[in-house]
Amino acid sequence: MSMDITFLGTGSAYPSPHRGASALVLRTEGECWLFDCGEGTQTQLMKSAIRASKITKVFISHLHGDHFFGLPGLLCTLSLSCSPHGDQEGPHIEVYGPQGLRNFLRVALQISRSDLLLTYAVHELEPSREQSPCTGHLDPALTTSSPQLHPQERPGRTVHLDPDSDCYSLVHDQRFVVQAFQLYHRVPSFGFAVQERERPGRLKVELLKELGVNPGPLYGRLKNGQSVTLDSGRLLRPEEVLEPAVRGRKVCVFGDCSALVGEGGRRACEGADVMVHEATLEDGQQEKAVEHGHSTPSMAAAVALACGARTLVLHHFSQRYRPAGDQQEQESGAVGDQQGGGGAPISQLKVQAEQALQGSCTRVILAEDFLTVPVVRQERHTQPGKNS
Amino acid sequence: MSMDITFLGTGSAYPSPHRGASALVLRTEGECWLFDCGEGTQTQLMKSAIRASKITKVFISHLHGDHFFGLPGLLCTLSLSCSPHGDQEGPHIEVYGPQGLRNFLRVALQISRSDLLLTYAVHELEPSREQSPCTGHLDPALTTSSPQLHPQERPGRTVHLDPDSDCYSLVHDQRFVVQAFQLYHRVPSFGFAVQERERPGRLKVELLKELGVNPGPLYGRLKNGQSVTLDSGRLLRPEEVLEPAVRGRKVCVFGDCSALVGEGGRRACEGADVMVHEATLEDGQQEKAVEHGHSTPSMAAAVALACGARTLVLHHFSQRYRPAGDQQEQESGAVGDQQGGGGAPISQLKVQAEQALQGSCTRVILAEDFLTVPVVRQERHTQPGKNS
Q: Could you tell me where the beta strands, DSSP code E, fall in chain A?
C-alpha cells in the first residue's frame, strides 16, 4: 500500500498567497491524516489532489494560530459534504492536540451554531513544564472546558506523558502506532511519530505444496511464526516457507521547535523513513530563530542525524523565502512580514542542511505547497517470524 | 475624497479557490472598514490593492463561520506588521458584531497566546427575538464572557436596539453615522448603513472680497449657515456666498437574510448610493433560498426598490456559480458543495435582478473577488446652510 505526504502550507507565522499556513496530509490505505490546520487549509485541500472527505484524524502540534485557526472551518466544510444519515452516526474525526484545543473548538462551533453531519473527539496532550517558557500561563478556565459537549462532540481522552517511553501514546491499532513527543518552543509544542506495523511475509504456497502441506491450520501457525511437525516427522520452521517480513515505515512530523525535550523524541524518531522538520530561518539567523523557539536548516539536520532519518523534509519557512521559481523569490514579504528584507534564496536552506549532513546518507527535500513526497519502504528486511 | 468598495470574498458557505468567504472593504479618507471576515480574508487582502494596516473598524454581520472565522488570524497578522511602540498604545481596531463575538475572539486569542501590538474592542449588538428561529438557543455562557479582558482588549459596549429609529447606533463622528439594522436569517443577522455626513459648500471668497468682507469671524458664521449684517447695513445670507452643500454618500451592506425585520432597515437604507445585498441562489431556487434564510436576485432587487437604491451590488453566491469567465463556470462545486449540480450561469443572476428592477433606474452589478466599485457622489445638491 502506498504512503505519501502532501504539503498544503509551508509558510510560518501566517498564510500568504505564496505559502499557506502550516498543514500537511499523510495519506495511506485510503485514509488521510492531517497534521496542523492553519487558516486556509480547507482551500488548500480543494486545490490539492487530496480528498478532504478521507480525513479521519487531525494532529495539532501546538496552539499558535497559524497551526490551528483553520480547524473549525474545515470541520464545518467537511460536514457540508456529508449526506444526512438519519439515526446512524456520520463520519467521525479524531483530533489530537495540546490542552486548550477542545475548548477552542467547542466555543467556535457553538458560537457559530454549527450543526455538523459528522462527529469528532478531541484528545488533549498534557504539556510538561519543560516544554516552554509560557507553560502554565494559560488561564485554567480556557483549558478546563465546560462539561457540556458540543452536540456532535464525543468524549476525548486527556493523554499524559508515559514516563517509560517519555512519549504520549496516541494510536495503537492493527496498522499503526502513533506517539507524540515533547518539543521546546514558546508554547508547548509536540512532534508526532507514526510507525507502520511490520507485516509478516507471505507464505511460499508453491513450496508448501511441494512439501505436501495443504492449506489448513498449519498455514496459520507457520504465518504466526510457529514451527510445525509434518506427518513425515520433519520439523518445518517458518523462515523456510515465509517471504521476508515487510518492514513498517516510519514518518515523523515535528511541530515548531528549537530543540527536543527529553529522550522521547529521539527514540520515537529513530530510523525514520521521512522526518518533517521546521526550518523557519537560514543558518545565519540562528540566534533570532532560537529566540523565537524556531530552527535553522543545520539545527534540523542535527536532529535528523541524531535519529538516523533517511529523508529530511524542511518546511515552515519564513514568508520572506519565496518558493523556488517565484518571480519575487528574494523580495521582502507581504502584509505581516516583520522580519523585513529578503533573506537567502530558499535553495540556500537546502544547501545548509546538506552541508550539515555531509557524510551521512540522509537526503534533504525542501517542501513547497502541494508537493507530494512518497514514503518508500526500506529494502532492509527483518527476520521473518518476528512480528513487532 | 474618493470612496470605494472592494470585494475580497463573494462566495457563500465556505471559502473556495474560486470565491473567498465573505469579506469586503469600504475605503475612504485613508481608512478601511472591513465588513465580515471569513476564513482566508487576510490572504485575500494580501492579493488585493487594499493596505490591511489601514483597517480601523470591522463589522461582522452574523456568527456563521464563513463570516467571522478569519478574524482572529487577521488581528494576529495585522499585529505582526506593527512596530513595537514602547509605552504608547499601538493601532486600535473597533469591532462590531452580534453577541458572542467578544467571547470567541477572547478565547481564540488567549488560547493561541496572541500577544498583540495593537488593541481592539468588541461592541456587541443585542439581537431581538424576531430576527431568527435560533435566537435564544445560544448557551448564555458563550455570550456572557468572563470579566477578564485579553491584555490588548479594551472594554466594548453592548448596543441595544433604539426603539425610535428601530436601528442600532454604532458610529457618530464628524464624518460618518453608522447604524445597524435587523435582518431575518437562521441566526441573528445585521445589515449596516454607512451615511457620510453632508459637508457645507465652500465660501465664495472672491465674491466676499468684492463685497468688502475680509477673512475673519464673519466667514465662520456664514459657513455655519448664519446670516450676517455688514457694516453697510446689508443683510448677507449664507446661500449668497456659499457653494452648494456637498451631499454625503450612503453605503448599505446587508448580512445574510431572507427579509428585513421591522422598519429600521428600510429607513436606514433610504436612497442608498450603493446597496450590497446577498443573492445566494437564483430565482428558480427561491424556496430553497428562503428555507436557508437566504435571498435570490429578485428578492434583493425588491429591497433595493423599496429603499430607492441607486446601485445594487449582488454577492454571497453559492459556490456552484463560478465567476464569469471561469473555465468551469457552470460546473458543480468543490469539497463542500451540498447543493450539487451546476446552476444557471452567474450572468443569469444579474438578468434576474435587472428584470425585477425594470422601470427603475437602479443599476445592478455582480460582485467578484477583488472587484472594486466606486461610490460616486450624487449630483443632486441640497440647500446650502442646512447641515444634517
A: 3-9, 23-28, 31-35, 55-59, 92-98, 119-125, 153-154, 158-159, 168-172, 176-184, 189-196, 228-229, 235-236, 250-253, 259-260, 274-278, 311-315, 363-366, 372-374
pLDDT in tens, B306-356: 999 999 999 999 999 999 877 554 444 444 444 444 667 999 999 999 999
Contact between A145 and A158 under an 8 Å Cβ cutoff? The reply is no
Contact A279, A349 (CB under 8 A): yes
On whether the pTM is more than 0.90, the answer is yes
Question: What does the pLDDT look like over A361-376, one tens digit per residue?
Answer: 999 999 999 999 999 9
Q: How many CB pairs below 8 Å do chains A and B form together?
A: 171
- Cell numbers 504465518 correspond to A223
Closest chain B residue to A187, measured at CA: B113
Cα pseudo-dihedral B270, B271, B273, B279, rounded to 10: 50
Would residue A66 show up in a list of annotated catalytic residues for this protein? yes
Contacts of B104 in chain A (CB under 8 A): 107-108, 111
Mean of per-residue pLDDT scores for chain A: 91
Query: Do the Cβ atoms of A179 and A369 come closer than 8 Å?
Result: no
Cell of B57: 473598524
Q: Do residue B111 and residue A134 have CB atoms under 8 angstroms apart?
A: no
CA nearest neighbour of B61 among B78, B37, B45:
B37
Cβ pair A286, A347 in contact under 8 A: no
* Catalytic entry in A66, A256, A283, A369: A66
